[in-house]
Specification:
About 45% of the residues lie in helices and about 15% in strands. The chain is of the alpha/beta class. Helix 1 packs parallel to helix 2 (about 35-45) and helix 3 (about 55-65) packs parallel to helix 5. The protein is globular.
């Protein structure tokens, strides 16, 4: 299964997702794509098996991912302070992958029906959703 984490800015949310995924599923390889080199480096340090940076990396890796995790901004053109290009948002949105997106207030989007979660709570919920979807939940 190809698990892909996408993040931008400093990569903090992606880093937290990868750390939690690796703790819950230590044998599952996780790949990361950062919208900038700093985000990619942060996610690689957290245990991702491979990583790449930039728009083309998002387009290429979103095509055959089975699950994509990241902030909700990865499906919104110009989100994350402009780091998400329209092509990136389309590639993630059009991907056949299951998308597990975390709320992020810096994207100027509020998702009705979700409470105000801390990043740690949102990451824990995302990993739970991944485990349920992947069948790895115990």
């Amino acid at each position: 299964m190809k698990v892909l984490v996408i993040d931008g800015q400093g990569g903090g949310m992606g880093r937290a997702l990868i750390e939690a995924l690796k703790k819950a599923c230590p044998d599952q390889p996780v790949l990361c794509v950062g919208t900038n080199a700093m985000a990619t480096a942060s996610m690689l340090r957290s245990g991702a098996e491979g990583g790449a940076t930039g728009e083309n990396a998002v387009l290429v890796n979103a095509k055959d991912a089975d699950v994509i995790l990241g902030p909700v901004g990865i499906v919104l053109a110009d989100a994350l302070m402009g780091e998400i290009t329209p092509a990136m948002a389309v590639a993630v949105g059009a991907s056949r992958a299951r998308k597990i997106l975390l709320p992020a207030t810096n994207c100027r989007v509020q998702i009705a029906g979700t409470g105000a979660l801390s990043m740690q709570q949102a990451v824990a919920d995302a990993v739970d959703k991944y485990l349920q979807w992947s069948g790895e939940a115990t």
